[in-house]
Amino acid sequence: MPTKNTKAASKVASWRNGSAGFFQWLDDVKPLVPSAKGGFEVYQPGPLERIEIAKAIDGDYRTIVFCWPRRHGKTLVTALIIVWRFLTRKTQTIGIIANSEKQIVDTAFKTVSSVLRKTEYTAALIKAGSIVIADTG
């Protein structure tokens, strides 16, 4: 009989398979993201975003840059990919790059942090001490 840890490891393994794993992670974890209406809502990419995300993740790239118009979710999608990779890879370094330190901390890091804190799956990992989020002052 599979244990809880075996089931969790199997689930995480299923999330590692390129864009299919990313979209499975979205379906399973239902990450909560800041809503334009206030509060938080489950992230659901539109059809065009799904295509671009799949191309970015499944392409043979070491660096991914989304070149979308303002207010089209570049930072949000990047934050979700960062959280997904953080949860599914043990030996990779993940960097957050922006035009300024203020943009990194006030936009990118806070988005990653809020996804981790507000999503039920990752909030449980924070509570258990498996994830520690540094204070940015």
Entry summary:
The protein contains 6 helices and 2 strands. The chain is mainly alpha-helical. It is globular and about 40 Å long.
Describe the model.
β1 and β2 (40-42) form a beta hairpin. The protein has a two-stranded antiparallel sheet with strand order 1-2. With 137 residues, the chain is mainly α. The mean pLDDT is 84. Helices cover 55% and strands 4% of the residues. It has 6 helices and 2 strands; from the N terminus they run ααββαααα.
Annotate the secondary structure layout.
Blueprint: H1 4-14, H2 18-29, E1 32-34, E2 40-42, H3 47-58, H4 74-88, H5 101-118, H6 120-127
Antiparallel strand pairs: 1-2
Largest sheet: 2 strands, antiparallel
Low-confidence stretches: none
Count of distinct strands: 2
**Mean of pLDDT:** 84
User: Measured on Cα atoms, how large is the radius of gyration?
Assistant: 15 Å
Features:
137 residues, 4% strand, 55% helix, two-stranded antiparallel ribbon, 2 strands
